[in-house]
Structure of N-acetyltransferase domain-containing protein:
Amino acid sequence: MIKKIPLNNLDVFIDIVSKAYPGFKITTSEERKKTRQRLVKLSRDPTIDHYGLYRCGKLLGGMRTYDFMMNLFSNEVLCGGVGLVAVDLLHKKEKVCKELIQYFIKLYKRKGASLVSLYPFRPDFYRKMGFGYGTKISEYNISPTDLPRGKSKGHVHFLARRDRKSFKECADRYHMKHHGMLRIKEHELDYFVERPEAITVVYKEGRKISGYLSF
């Protein structure tokens, strides 16, 4: 059975996630507490849900779903998103992940979405389930010394909390001008504005932000 994970079951899901994604380093009680707080906060967003697969009353795996709004040829359409797909290590190879993804696809069909998207850790696995590859992403690495020297740095600032509204407006304008872009969500804004490890520089004229660089 697949259903929304109740708040009193989040600790079990966090334990599954910590073992499935050791790179997240959810190893201390403090990190587990922070992770739980993030999940509870995300659960308050009506466009985000956490689903779990249960067998005999035991949670064997889970996922997070997102209601994204995508720019499809200058029209906003619902696009389902999925992430944090995690399976109990003792129940690998039992088709837990497959059943979760199948449920995710059916869920967004019922919601009327024509598109779903994800970042795959195993492209071959999702390819077999009917997913196609997205547009090629080219990554370029440049040295700061190679950037052209401008006349002034007066419009360049570090992103501050007071810039949240202007930053979202900038991201929304970009979203509406580019086919395939997803509208930025509130928790993503939190990452740019609230988290100290996210360093973002913006180009600002008055109160308007016209561009940004995050690293």
